[in-house]
Write a structure and sequence with these properties.
Chain lengths: 558, 296, 518
């Protein structure tokens, strides 16, 4: 008897679990949207009831919001990975930055043409020697928690992030600032020791966002207060609702947003981290999400055909390159470096690895970066490259190790380059590491040989695009000149360009710098990948910045 | 069990702290300078002696039930493990269901039609099933049923349809083991006297099989299936990776690849505990079902 | 033991084994796989490390697979002169669908590179004039229904000067890619509307970005660019209004040319009137990657265009290496520990048994992952990881049979006459465990290969570029929804190998099992 019961118990139990599984899973995708809607409707009717006895004014306001929320709807976005933080000052990854851009604003921002435009600042002015920049701030801006935005907020924010005691990831980003001074309630001046004409660009970067001073105070009072998880109080058109790991981050419309023209068009945005690219694509096709990025290039082709889906492809500011360690004698000879550049077929690389979604890098920075100047590229020419090798100190070829991140994209690029370098006698072994490990090894700088790098200047201008990679004082452990490339002539020119307030003159210097770098070939210059973003046809108002970043603040459904 | 778990905490702790890779770099990428980096190491306590770190870890875990924060997402590991445990649990339960369903059915058919074509076919399929790598089988299932026919989503989670392919893939290998076990178990029972008696009484073959043979033959099968549970969880690591199923397995692999110490530590402990528990239960049930074992 | 009288145990075993036809067949396969592992690289059709396209020439295979070509072009000036492309001002190039082919200017000309198969158009533009080349990239997408397009317009350039009040009828030829011509305005207008009119309403996506600029290239244009000097009506009749330089443009979508008139006596500077392409159709091949199985590559090629058959053949060695070496290590250590534990018993036995129990409680794959995570990726570490969880299996079985052999009379006898323990263990007990060890050894090789492949698949293997079956699958999995052959064949190789070992092991076991009668 007992045994029989046991069997049946097991079978019944399994069935129950399956049913439970089906049920719980059945609900998950709709959970957020459906429940969200009903809850909101309930709230609204409640509001209506309570407002019934109030003045007419209030009712009108209420009706207005009702009307706008009717046309709103909810956007669900499939992003590549879990965000790491909701604090812009502690964020270095793109996914977190995308989510934060709905909630936070800085004094300035970049528009779709990479121009600097005012946001929380109404105006800004450089001093003549470019050591000071003075911001006139917008009045009447409130944070999501109701506190006012003013000059003091700017100072508190910048002082907090700069203080390395607070251990924020972006503290070094603001190290150019020497002092922040509040002139009056809505005027603030930022000083730097050296002339720096890129200060405005730095202040337009996403990490120069302003958060509520209350949050900073909470952190100062309580060491354990988790700014990364809870401190998302900004001035943007959306406010933070919740963040559940591996499930979603939800932000909702902020009704008191200062800029009425750019009030959020949708009620809510849900960001869902979906690691597997093919799953993201699938979810877009089934309508589970409205917008996805990034997308593998092979899938992009398939999505292009679909009626209900819009695909955006456009260049980014990322540059892929093969770095080499100048402390290693192999790369001392310019001929060798140029031979390597000639040996890699960039057209083939883009066709094969990127399925055509990319362009050849013809400088150390991408065309969308302010200050870019294109150079005549190293054409693919194996025989020419072989001749260069023959005439160099390394005429017998050599063995090399190529480090790469272990993502599919990087590995494919590495394999491709390795195969091609082999043709001119460079025997390359590809080693893949998890990106953190790789950064570690590069910063240690001990066994570096060749590595695949990708660089995108977050500030969108040439200084941040070039200096970290080529300035002598940026060799390991200071980041990011991992190849110990020393060129004193360039060092001087970097400082000169920054200290030149006249834009045209500065541009000329940058053009010269880029020419020198490209000719000196400290990298094998590879390609600039396209940003590939796909969305549901009904969703409009998606802004794509030249860096490939997506801005959702004005998203709406047709 | 407690001392073993204690040893495992030490192993888990050493394991994650002695492996190469630096969590601070993983968290922030290359974009932080040396000074900030040092500050962060200090703050996270990585500069303390290992003993101190271990003490802190044990204190937090044992006294406060706190497994720490994930370095990567800064979320609470305990919560995350609990949530993902649900996914893996559902997956393994359904896989076990398939495994038992297929395994017992094929096993009984093989045993009752011994040495027939069906039996031989069944045996060859089981040995084949045991030779197919789970991940490849998963990819092929995906290719056929999701891409060619479009019946199921290719990967990910969300609806119950997402669960079918991964669970079938995972259950497949275990089914093969169960087939073999069921077959031999049924064959053994068929030789028993009471079966002969029942047949001699002139009962229908189906009645004999259903009411006499199965009832007794399936007891060891159930025990054996329980034992396979642990191995299902191991297989889940691979299958979850193929189908992007957000369970503990993919959490573990992600954790290892990103050197997310607290996650790896928590999962090693959890898995150890789970396997020890399963083994204990199986041992107990052996003794319970077969009193002879106690004398051995 | 009683059978020993009639026959040697080996012959009995052999007879039993040979009776199992399937196992014999599997044994044959195992031998074959071993041979492939050892000698395979000698007869692999291609180098597994290089793309096949780079090897066709060496192999003497004559394949016309151009992935890029340079387009020769010249500019025609209004005075009849021809200028080289390097002297053309603001030369702009663009392909309609960059995914199919891309175009860019190089020092030696304009280069078009195929990306994926399909048809697209390349626009080459300099100021007001432009020409179009048709690009056909051969590959998976059929190119049969590609319509010929107008590639360039050549307007007859009058040599004489005109005076105010004169009229002039424009003559032109619009050259199509199939060699035919359009010479009348009506026809060209109709053609243009048909070709470019349809896709005018495209580009209403909700994306806003800085780089998207809308060109009004869509329509047919016949217009004067210098309206105060000349006018032109719909029939192409030019009226001269004032002295100076007159320019009339004919545009059909992306193709455009101009004609220059000198009105009055003042000499005008010659201008660029058209771009002349030497070849209007560029045929390329998409031979970059993922070639489907064909007679040339029976398993197809992978994402780096390497021959999958050759890679599978080369990978055999590595796979077998993982299987054999790891199991060998595991067997040796496991057997020794098992013998010692079983023979001596006591604390050693309980320690070893306890460890074995703990290790066996974990699924092998998890144990291996843990070891790899600790040691780092790499072939040797995989072998080590697989060996680690093979050890307890052998400890257990060897210990068990040692326990029973220890009780045998011949062992007791040896003990009583004072034979040293080591001699007893290795002379008298070890041979008795050998048969069961052999069976498990064969079976574990299959498991070891599976776990090794799984580790590579999870990205924990060594060299990701190496032709190793698990890494091949790992590299192919991201495209598995689009590309079938790249995942199928390496996986099949694993299945066949593991299956052969398993069936062979099964057969061995049955043959060695004394319970099974002949």
């Amino acid at each position: 008897m007992l045994s029989r019961k046991g069997i049946w118990l097991l079978i019944v139990l399994s069935f129950m679990f399956i049913l439970a599984a089906c049920q719980s899973n059945d609900e998950t995708p709709n959970d957020e949207s459906n429940n969200g809607v009903t809850e909101e409707e309930v709230n609204e009717t409640e509001n209506d009831n309570t407002n019934a006895g109030n003045t007419n004014d209030n009712e009108e306001v209420n009706n207005e919001t009702d009307a706008s929320s009717e046309s709103g709807g909810e956007v669900t976005v499939g992003i590549e990975a879990e965000p790491t933080s909701m604090d812009p000052h502690n964020t270095t990854d793109g996914n977190s930055a995308t989510v934060q851009s709905t909630m936070f604003e800085g004094l300035l921002r970049f528009d779709e043409d990479m121009n600097i435009v005012n946001v929380l600042a109404e105006d800004y002015d450089y001093s003549d020697d470019a050591t000071e920049v003075t911001f006139t701030l917008r009045e009447g801006v409130t944070f999501h928690d109701g506190t006012e935005f003013d000059a003091n907020v700017v100072k508190e924010n910048l002082d907090f992030v700069r203080d390395s005691e607070n251990g924020l990831a972006r503290s070094s980003f603001f190290s150019f600032i020497d002092e922040v001074e509040v002139e009056d309630d809505f005027t603030v001046t930022i000083r730097s020791e050296e002339p720096n004409s890129a200060m405005a660009s730095y202040m337009a970067h996403s990490s120069a966002a302003m958060k509520s001073v209350d949050e900073i105070e909470k952190k100062q009072e309580d060491e354990d207060y988790n700014l990364d998880r809870e401190g998302a109080v900004g001035t943007g058109p959306f406010q933070f609702v919740e963040w559940r790991d591996s499930e979603h981050v939800i932000v909702e419309k902020f009704d008191d947003y200062w800029n009425e023209e750019e009030l959020a068009r949708v009620d809510q945005i849900t960001f869902r981290p979906v690691q597997e690219a093919s799953t993201r694509v699938n979810m877009l096709q089934t309508g589970e999400v409205d917008l996805i990025f990034p997308i593998p290039t092979l899938n992009a082709a398939e999505l292009e055909e679909e009626e209900e889906i819009d695909l955006f492809t456009g260049p980014t500011t990322d540059v892929f390159y093969i770095g080499m360690n100048f402390e290693n004698d192999k790369y001392e000879d310019l001929d060798v470096r140029q031979a390597m550049n000639h040996a890699v077929n960039k057209d083939g690389l883009i066709a094969q690895v990127l399925d055509g979604y990319g362009t050849i890098a013809d400088s150390a920075i991408a065309p969308n970066v302010y200050g870019y100047s294109g150079q005549p590229i190293y054409e693919y020419d194996v025989e020419g490259a072989q001749e260069l090798m023959d005439g160099s100190e390394q005429s017998d070829g050599f063995e090399a190790t190529l480090w790469t991140r272990n993502s599919t994209e990087f590995i494919s690029v590495a394999e491709y380059v390795a195969i091609q370098l082999e043709e001119i006698g460079i025997d390359v072994e590809v080693q893949a590491y998890e990106s953190g490990t790789l950064f570690d090894m590069l910063d240690a700088g001990e066994d570096t040989d060749m590595w695949i790098g990708r660089w995108s200047p977050g500030t969108g201008e040439a200084d941040y695009g070039l200096r970290p990679n080529f300035a002598s004082d940026r060799v390991p452990p200071n980041f990011n000149n991992s190849g110990f490339y020393i060129n004193e002539e360039l060092d001087e020119m970097f400082d000169e360009a920054l200290a030149t307030p006249d834009e045209d003159e500065a541009m000329e210097i940058y053009a010269e710098i880029q020419q020198k770098i490209y000719e000196d070939a400290p990298w094998v210059f590879l390609h600039i990948p396209d940003a590939i973003i796909a969305k549901n046809r009904d969703l409009v108002g998606i802004y794509v910045l030249p860096s490939g970043a997506v801005n959702l603040n004005l998203a709406e459904f047709q | 069990m407690i001392p073993i778990l204690f040893i495992i905490t030490i192993i888990a702790f050493l394991f994650v702290h002695l492996t190469p890779g630096d969590p601070i770099r993983i968290m922030y990428g290359a974009e932080i300078d040396q000074e900030t980096y040092e500050q962060m190491r200090e703050r996270e306590g990585f500069n303390d002696p290992l003993v101190v770190q271990y003490g802190r870890y044990m204190y937090n875990m044992a006294i406060q039930g706190d497994f720490g924060q994930s370095y990567r997402t800064r979320s609470d590991v305990s919560e995350e493990v609990l949530r993902r445990f649900g996914y893996t649990f559902i997956l393994t339960i359904l896989s076990m269901f398939w495994a038992i369903l297929i395994g017992v059915t094929v096993g009984i058919i093989s045993a009752t039609k011994r040495n027939s074509i069906l039996d031989r076919l069944g045996m060859i399929s089981t040995i084949t099933a045991l030779s197919i790598p789970e991940f490849w089988f998963g990819l092929m299932m995906m290719q056929i049923f999701a891409v060619q026919f479009g019946w199921f989503p290719t990967s990910g989670s969300g609806t119950w349809l997402h669960l079918i392919l991964p669970s079938l893939t995972l259950g497949f290998g275990v089914a093969a083991t169960i087939v073999r076990f069921t077959r031999s178990s049924v064959l053994e029972v068929l030789r028993e006297d009471y079966v002969r008696t029942a047949r001699a009484k002139g009962q229908k073959e189906s009645v004999v099989i259903w009411s006499h043979v199965l009832r007794n033959a399936l007891i060891p099968v159930v025990t054996m299936a329980g034992l396979q549970f642990g191995f299902l969880i191991g297989g889940a690591v691979v299958v979850e990776q193929v189908f992007a199923w957000p369970g503990l397995g993919s959490y573990l692999i992600d954790g290892i690849l990103t050197r997310d110490y607290p996650v790896i530590q928590a999962l090693i402990l959890l898995f150890s505990f789970q396997f020890l528990l399963i083994n204990l239960l199986v041992d107990i049930s052996y003794g319970f079902l077969n009193p002879q074992i106690r004398y051995e | 033991m009683d059978k020993q009288k009639k026959n040697s145990p080996f012959r009995i075993f052999l007879r039993k084994f040979l009776k199992q036809r399937l196992a014999v067949f599997a044994f044959g396969l195992v031998i074959m796989i071993l041979l492939v592992g050892i000698f395979g690289p000698l007869f692999a059709p291609y180098d597994p490390h290089r793309p096949v396209t780079a090897q066709y020439a060496d192999k003497g295979i004559d394949v016309d697979q151009l992935t890029s070509s340079t387009v020769q072009l010249e500019g025609r000036l209004s005075n009849g002169e021809v200028v080289d492309q390097s002297e053309l001002p603001q030369l702009q190039t663009e392909t309609e669908n960059r995914r199919i082919a891309s175009i860019r200017r190089t020092q030696s000309g304009v280069q078009i590179s195929a990306n994926t198969s399909g048809a697209t158009e390349a626009v080459i533009e300099s100021g007001d004039v432009s020409s179009v080349a048709e690009i056909l990239v051969e590959g998976e997408v059929p190119l049969d229904d590609v319509e010929p397009i107008v590639s360039q317009i050549i307007i007859a350039q009058p040599e004489e000067a005109f005076s105010i009040g004169d009229e002039y009828q424009i003559n032109f030829e619009a050259l199509k890619t199939d060699g035919s011509e359009i010479t009348t305005i009506e026809e060209l207008r109709a053609y243009t509307e048909e070709k470019y009119g349809a896709d005018e309403e495209e580009d209403t996506s909700g994306f806003q970005s800085g780089s998207s600029e809308n060109e009004d290239s869509a329509s047919f244009q016949l217009r004067s660019l210098t309206e105060d000097v000349v006018t032109v009506n719909e029939q192409g009749v030019v009226q001269f209004e004032e002295e100076g330089e007159g320019i009339v443009q004919i545009q059909s979508g992306d193709v455009s040319s101009v004609v220059q008139f000198q009105v009055g006596n003042e000499q005008v500077e010659p201008i660029l009137t058209g771009i002349y392409l030497e070849s209007t159709t560029v045929e390329l091949t998409d031979a970059y990657k993922h070639q489907t199985p064909s007679s040339m590559h029976i398993f197809g090629t992978d994402h780096q265009n390497r021959d999958i058959l050759s890679r599978v053949i080369h990978g055999t060695k590595e796979t077998l290496l993982i299987g054999f070496v790891s199991v060998a290590i595991g067997t040796v250590i496991g057997t020794v520990l098992g013998l010692l534990a079983g023979y001596y018993g006591g604390w050693l036995d309980s320690l070893v048994t306890r460890m074995t129990d703990v290790l066996l409680a974990f699924p092998g794959i998890l144990l291996a992952i843990a070891v790899i995570a600790f040691l780092g990726a790499g072939l040797t570490n995989i072998i080590f990881a697989v060996a680690v969880f093979t050890i307890p299996v052998f400890i257990r079985i060897v210990r068990a049979s040692t326990l029973s052999l220890k009780e045998m009379t011949y062992v007791e006898a040896a003990k009583s006459i004072g034979v040293p323990n080591t001699v007893i263990i290795f002379r008298h007990i070890f041979p008795g465990t050998l048969s069961v060890v052999m069976v498990y050894l064969t079976m574990r090789i299959g498991v070891a290969i599976l776990i090794g492949a799984a580790l590579s698949f999870l990205g924990l293997g060594g060299d990701i570029t190496a032709p190793e079956w698990g890494s091949m699958l790992s590299a192919a999995k991201d495209n598995s929804s689009n590309i079938f052959h790249a995942t199928f064949f390496p996986g099949l190789a694993i299945v066949i190998t593991v299956l052969s070992f398993n069936i062979f092991g099964d057969g061995l076991r049955d043959a060695l099992d004394p319970k099974l009668k002949e």
